[in-house]
């Protein structure tokens, strides 16, 4: 393998890896405050991209993206308020099925609004052909947008959870919901907020990735599975773990193309998921004891 | 014996529907009723897994597809060019191959449907064992994701392999001659007999499962669902029983897949899709998880409506909506909503309120 | 040879030594009680005996056979039944069905035999039902046989749980705080039941908080404190043991 090809695969891996990491962090945020795995996480990404593409007809791109993110956050809030908030101590099975139902409804809404066609946002800078040279390899400029946006989200979330009072309240919720309630924190609002946040980061990821990976109504399930793989791989609930695991999976997937046919690429990451679930359900970096504790 | 008696009314309904259809000249309904019966066969198997053993599976379309695809591929792809291969000639001498001619009069050699059916169902069972041993150690979200992942792998494999026809699937699957004069096929003339074959199979499956849940095994399964730990302490090999139930439900799914594929004369990748798996879970949920009759009823009604195209382009959306609504408002299934009782309660409350005012 | 022999059993949870080098024996036909203050390691000891989790070191032998590494269902099949501190009924099943599950290891109908309702399973099924009814009658709750077990009163649920454990025809019965949550009358009733069970020839090992119950019915008592065995003697001697008194009444 030439250095150029190597760099190209690497950059592709990092790009996809950062998207997976963002989806995984979306899983983590909701999981930490509620203990729910939101099967509709991938649909947030889809909505972000699709809404931005539609809005683009009426406004410049930065505005379209911001508005798309805000709308998706609103969708996230609505989902929580309509389907989750008022349930009294629902069983895990019930929550799983509800979020699966939400995911299907979201897809169906999308297919009736946007159809089955594949769409994409234009490149933020330049076009498909323009590229930046990295160690002799040609890399699309959008790749840097994806990586930068993902990194920015991780940093901002970190700051939000560590320094702001709302962020601290959410962490309190995560570590002990009952105790947080007793301290006067409105845990229900925190849950809503967690849906809003994870919808927001999902949507933003959906926008920045759209020029490269395109957007389609049914992209959610695949992303959700991979995001979940990453979340588990990094240790459910851990942001740092998600980033590391996301990059790992992305790069692994990118290089697997040189060994296995493209059609099996998804099968590979799912096989990784299954193997991890069987061998180390606490994740690569977590210890068994730590798996019980959740932190952002 | 009692179980046999309990399905007799159903048998009467099945015959009744046939006469009704022929009397009203709506025999074409029988086609969808036949297909619904096969889907219902998968669904009652899944019901035992989910409702009684308490294990969710979001990958059962995968087992259906393993059954359908394998029997379709084996009975359709000609082995003529491999005739000299030792395995092929062994199969031939064992009477498991059928020679014939294709549309263009060329000689073909395919696996006989009976042999293909057995291979397909056994493969599904073996895969269920291999997948089930690690997967059933998982709980909750992990189990759901792992089974979903399994389903997607099967879907991807079906899409990726030329042997399974990639995006087109496999068509022109021959009839499955069960006995001379009795064959599973989409032939117009065989419609009535196929209706009875499908429903016969479903009734047999129903009797077997009703027997199962009212037995030592059924009690153990319900015990596991009630309290895993206590069942364990009572000597129930919980993981063994979960696995056996998983395999059993996979076999039901694979048999449904084999028969429906021969009936339709083909199978496509959408049969392996996630949406199908979710749909089956939705139907079991509507029927009320631990309620075989509910699962059977809903399996027939919802599949029939879907196959008739009643839901139009909102087919998947309807099932998604059903899933959410049932889980939000009637997690014990639609039959648990005692509507008359609720109405009475509502009216009763209204009355007392008025009395209070007076 | 004693029915149950515990030899230098240890259990470590992280840095905590929950059970420390405990050895004792249970002779056939006795009622033996393990007592001790909260957190003494009684339930941990129980869970190791019944195979719920493995011991860090040490051995448990039952009827001369080592149980190490055996899962609870395998231990149960050898003839050791147990009840739980917080009653674990099988929800959604009647009292009778709960007890019938107890006959699991004594019957053998598998998936195929059950689905095809083989003729030989009819006899087995009838036997399971009859024996279970008998046990419900023995514990005087037969009139609730067809009631949903979870909807029964607490005391009745205890009885159903006992019947379920007895259905296994155990040679050793482990009772984890059988009087927990019961009032004095119910406790006395449970005491009477346990003695009756012993008279049926079943050895009983119980963990209990309620001193009056234990002193009344036990043949031998072992005292556990912070995971260590403090004393093992007859109830009479235990009552006079200065160290036990110190633990229970505090230092003067």
Structure overview:
The complex is a heterotrimer of chains A (296), B (358) and C (252). Chain A is mostly helical and 296 residues long. Chain A is built from 11 helices and 2 strands, in the order H-H-H-H-E-E-H-H-H-H-H-H-H. Chain A has helices at residues 3-34, 41-55, 61-84, 92-114, 141-163, 165-175, 177-182, 187-213, 219-233, 239-256, 265-279; strands spanning 131-134, 137-140. Chain A has a two-stranded antiparallel sheet with strand order 1-2. Chain B is 69% helix and 6% strand. Chain B has a two-stranded antiparallel ribbon. Chain B has a two-stranded antiparallel ribbon with strand order 3-6. In chain B, strands 4-5 form a two-stranded antiparallel ribbon. In chain B, strand 1 and strand 2 (107-111) form a beta hairpin. In chain B, helix 11 (274-287) packs parallel to helix 13 (315-329). The longest helix of chain B is centred in the C-terminal third of the chain and has 27 residues, at 238-264. Chain C has 10 helices and 10 strands. Chain C has helices at 42-49, 72-77, 95-102, 111-115, 119-138, 154-166, 184-199, 211-217, 235-240, 242-249; strands at 4-13, 16-26, 31-35, 57-62, 65-66, 80-82, 172-176, 203-207, 220-225, 228-233. In chain C, a hairpin with a 2-residue loop joins strand 4 (57-62) and strand 5. In chain C, helix 3 packs parallel to helix 6 (154-166), helix 5 (119-138) crosses helix 6 and helix 7 (184-199) packs parallel to helix 8. The radius of gyration of chain C is 19 Å and the shape is globular. Chain A binds chain B through residues 37, 39, 83, 87, 90-94, 96-98, 100-105, 107-109, 112, 221-222, 225, 228, 232, 261, 263-264, 266-267, 270-271, 273-274, 277-278, 281, and chain B through 56, 58, 134-135, 137-138, 140-142, 144-146, 148-150, 152-153, 156-157, 159-160, 274-275, 278, 281-282, 285, 313-314, 316-317, 319-321, 323-324, 327-328, 331.
């Amino acid at each position: 393998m030439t250095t150029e090809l190597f760099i190209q695969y690497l950059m592709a891996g990092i790009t996809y890896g950062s998207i997976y990491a963002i989806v995984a962090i979306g899983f983590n945020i909701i999981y930490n405050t509620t203990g729910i795995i939101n099967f509709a996480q991938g649909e947030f990404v889809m909505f972000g991209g699709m809404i931005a593409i539609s809005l683009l007809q009426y406004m410049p791109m930065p505005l379209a993206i911001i508005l798309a993110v805000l709308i998706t956050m609103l969708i996230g809030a609505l989902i929580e308020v309509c389907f989750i908030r008022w349930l009294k101590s629902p069983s895990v099975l019930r929550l799983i099925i509800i979020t699966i139902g939400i995911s299907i409804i979201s897809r169906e809404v999308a297919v009736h609004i946007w159809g089955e066609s594949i769409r994409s946002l234009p490149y933020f800078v330049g076009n498909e052909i323009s590229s930046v040279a990295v160690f002799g390899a040609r890399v699309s400029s959008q790749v840097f947008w994806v990586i930068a946006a993902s990194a920015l989200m991780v940093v901002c979330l970190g700051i939000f959870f560590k320094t702001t009072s709302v962020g601290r309240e959410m962490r309190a919720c995560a570590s002990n919901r009952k105790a947080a309630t007793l301290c006067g924190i409105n845990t229900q609002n925190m849950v809503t907020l967690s849906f809003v946040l994870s919808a927001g980061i999902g949507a933003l990821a959906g926008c920045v990735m759209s020029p490269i990976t395109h957007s389609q109504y049914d992209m959610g399930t695949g992303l959700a599975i991979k995001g979940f793989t990453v979340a588990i791989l990094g240790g459910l609930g851990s942001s740092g773990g998600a980033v590391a695991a996301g990059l790992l999976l992305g790069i692994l997937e990118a290089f697997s193309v040189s060994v296995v046919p493209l059609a099996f690429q998804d099968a590979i990451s799912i096989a990784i998921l299954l193997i991890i679930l069987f061998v180390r359900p606490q994740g690569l970096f977590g210890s068994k004891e730590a798996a019980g504790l959740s932190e952002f | 014996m009692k179980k046999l008696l309990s399905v007799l009314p159903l048998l009467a309904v099945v015959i009744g529907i046939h006469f009704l259809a022929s009397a009203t000249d709506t025999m074409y309904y029988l086609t969808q009723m036949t297909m619904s019966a096969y889907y219902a066969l998968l669904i009652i198997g899944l019901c035992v897994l989910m409702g009684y053993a308490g294990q969710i599976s979001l990958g059962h379309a995968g087992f259906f597809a393993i059954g359908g695809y394998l029997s379709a591929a084996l009975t359709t792809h000609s082995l003529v060019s491999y005739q000299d291969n030792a395995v092929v000639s062994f199969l031939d001498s064992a009477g498991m191959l059928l020679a014939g001619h294709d549309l263009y009069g060329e000689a073909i050699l395919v696996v006989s449907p009976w042999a293909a059916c057995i291979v397909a169902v056994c493969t599904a069972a073996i895969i269920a064992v291999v997948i089930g041993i690690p997967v059933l150690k998982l709980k909750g979200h992990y189990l759901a994701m792992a089974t979903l992942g399994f389903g997607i792998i099967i879907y991807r494999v079906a899409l990726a392999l030329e042997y399974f026809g990639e995006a087109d699937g496999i068509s022109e699957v021959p009839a499955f001659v069960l006995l001379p004069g009795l064959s599973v096929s989409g032939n117009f003339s065989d419609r009535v007999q196929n209706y009875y074959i499908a429903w016969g199979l479903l009734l047999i499956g129903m009797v077997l499962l009703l027997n199962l849940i009212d037995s030592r095994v059924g009690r153990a399964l319900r015990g596991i669902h009630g309290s895993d730990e206590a069942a364990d302490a009572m000597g129930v090999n919980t993981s063994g029983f979960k696995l056996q139930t998983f395999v059993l439900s996979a076999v039901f799914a694979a048999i449904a897949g084999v028969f429906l594929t021969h009936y339709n004369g083909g199978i496509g990748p959408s049969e392996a899709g996630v949406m199908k798996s979710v749909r089956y879970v939705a139907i079991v949920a509507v029927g009320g998880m631990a309620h075989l009759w509910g699962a059977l009823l809903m399996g027939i009604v919802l599949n029939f409506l879907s196959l008739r195209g009643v839901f139009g382009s909102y087919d998947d959306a309807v099932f998604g909506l059903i899933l959410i609504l049932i889980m939000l408002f009637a997690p014990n299934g639609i039959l648990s909503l005692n509507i008359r009782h609720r109405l009475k309660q509502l009216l009763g409350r209204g009355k007392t309120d008025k009395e209070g005012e007076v | 040879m004693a029915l149950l022999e515990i030899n230098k059993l240890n259990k470590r949870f992280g840095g905590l030594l929950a059970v420390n080098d405990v050895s004792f024996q249970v002779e056939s036909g006795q009622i033996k009680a393990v007592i001790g203050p909260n957190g003494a390691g009684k339930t941990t000891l129980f869970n190791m005996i019944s195979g719920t989790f493995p011991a860090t070191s040490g051995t448990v032998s039952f009827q001369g056979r080592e149980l190490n590494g055996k899962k609870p269902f395998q231990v149960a099949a050898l003839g050791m039944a147990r009840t739980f501190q917080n009653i674990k009924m099988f929800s959604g099943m009647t009292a009778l069905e709960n007890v019938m599950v107890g006959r699991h290891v004594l019957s053998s109908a598998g998936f195929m035999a059950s689905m095809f309702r083989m003729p030989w399973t009819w006899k087995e099924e009838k036997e399971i039902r009859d024996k279970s009814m008998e046990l419900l009658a023995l514990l005087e709750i037969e009139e609730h046989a067809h009631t949903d077990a979870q909807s029964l009163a607490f005391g009745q649920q205890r009885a159903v749980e006992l019947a379920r454990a007895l259905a296994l025809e155990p040679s050793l019965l482990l009772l984890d705080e059988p009087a927990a949550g019961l009032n004095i009358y119910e406790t006395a009733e449970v005491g009477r039941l346990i003695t009756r069970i012993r008279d049926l020839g079943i050895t009983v090992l119980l963990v209990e908080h309620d001193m009056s119950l234990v002193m009344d019915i036990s043949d031998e008592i072992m005292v556990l404190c912070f995971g260590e065995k403090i004393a093992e003697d007859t109830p009479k001697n235990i009552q006079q043991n200065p160290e036990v008194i110190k633990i229970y009444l505090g230092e003067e």
